[in-house]
Amino acid sequence: MRHDEFKAFLHPVDSITRKIPGKKGYIGVMCPSRADKKRPTVSFNKVLEQFNLEQFHFGKVGLVETLFRIKHLNGGESSIIINNSPYERCHSLMVYELEKRFPQMLTVDALRSAFEVALMSSHPGFRMLYNGICACASVNHLHFQMYYTPNYAVNLETWPLRNLAHNTLFKMEDDAPLPAWVVYIDEKNYADVAQRLIQFTDLLLKQNIAHNLAVIREAETGKLRVFLWARKPTVGTRDYSEFHVAVTELIGHCYYGEEEKWSTDTEVEIESELKQFALDDQTYQTLSNELARLMDPSPRGLLGWLIG
């Protein structure tokens, strides 16, 4: 793929990392070659956009960029292709049912399939990531990002959680600059969790609320945590020399395209950037109550969650 005959990659992976000083353990990663070589982004104005054949989509990717395909238990299929503008080890994309041209919107089958792929790996550094439209997705074609951070942890591996719903739903502790809801998955419950989460993300779509998702292994136990964020939108095109709040930044793995900011940014400055995309407290609480109701394995209704 690096050979001049194929030229599958737009640039070399010349990333360097820096642990940001502070108690949270943010990681700064800079790939100088990426800032001016990555394909320009498309501007989106709402969280649900129709698939557009005229824009870039993964059907335009050459065969040389396809690594393999995975057949899922539901009969669906995912194409695993390289990210041709990578900044981490094995940076690749899982495109669910590529030929069906689904827009970048979470579905039950796609989320179940992403969970299956995450469950296949026992590597502690494996990351399964999703950016929604207006949440820093750059391509409106249903896909997930995947890569490894094999030599260092990200802070969501150890972030303290608070129980919201009888050990089925958690939230990041209150000092999180942009809090997520958290669910644990395993081989027995992942299909049910996907079904319940999609009811919630469908609600977010109807309310035009941007969202991101990540699957991260818990450092202490090795269990898989699913993090789901609802946030204020990112609109317009993105300049890759600037700092943006995508799912990678939300997991504590912060991408930089400019060396001075990468070398001087502090934990306070990073969290200030994240806080700009946090929803107001009332909206977050309303959504928390709704998600708790959907995740309740023994239906008690909304009133039960509010009082108990």
Helix and strand content put the structural class at alpha+beta
Mean pLDDT: 88
Low-confidence stretches: 301-308
Q: What characteristic shape results from the CA principal axes?
A: globular
The number of helical runs is: 8
SSE succession = EEHEEEHEEEEEHEEHEHHHH
Termini distance?
56 Å
- Taking all Cα atoms into account, the compactness measure Rg is 19 Å
List the helices and strands and how they pair.
Layout: E1 16-19, E2 27-30, H1 34-37, E3 66-71, E4 77-82, E5 89-96, H2 108-120, E6 126-131, E7 143-148, E8 161-163, E9 170-172, E10 181-185, H3 190-206, E11 210-217, E12 224-231, H4 247-250, E13 253-256, H5 259-264, H6 267-275, H7 281-295, H8 301-307
Describe the structure.
The protein is α+β, with helices and mostly antiparallel strands and 308 residues long. The protein has a domain at 54-235 and 277-307. It is built from eight helices and 13 strands. The protein has helices at residues 34-37, 108-120, 190-206, 247-250, 259-264, 267-275, 281-295, 301-307; strands spanning 16-19, 27-30, 66-71, 77-82, 89-96, 126-131, 143-148, 161-163, 170-172, 181-185, 210-217, 224-231, 253-256. Strands 3-4-5-7-6-11-12-10-9-8 form a ten-stranded antiparallel sheet, covered by helices on one side. Strand 3 (66-71) and strand 4 (77-82) form a beta hairpin. Helix 7 (281-295) packs across helix 8 (301-307). The chain starts with 15 loop residues before the first strand and ends with a helix. The relative contact order is 0.16.
Essential attributes:
308 residues, alpha+beta, ten-stranded antiparallel sheet, three-stranded mixed sheet, 8 helices, 13 strands, globular
